[in-house]
Input
Amino acid sequence: MTNMHERLKKIRKYLNLSIREFSKEIYVSHSLYGQVEHGDREPSDRIIQLISSRFDISKEWIMTGKGDMFSSEPPDIRLDRILEIYKTIDGTLKDCLLEQSKLLLKIHKDRKRN
Output
């Protein structure tokens, strides 16, 4: 059985996030979260609650390893990342991103037909 620190790392790795990115998602400093994940500090109830609510992770699984990791479907945070990028670029690049997205959708549909 894994310990809580290893389960927290497993969550972060599953979501393909760095410690800095993960800590930003749960509104704690990356240094604090790094200490928690490395086992130098115990996670507070607040951190466990933030992880559980942000990523729909079972609190029981975080604390004990029992049951399923996710309370429902695993989250797909890629949309959040795309929206962050979209919000930071200017109008011309937003148009380009939209056109690229349309092209990817067409390629996807063509593959499904074949």
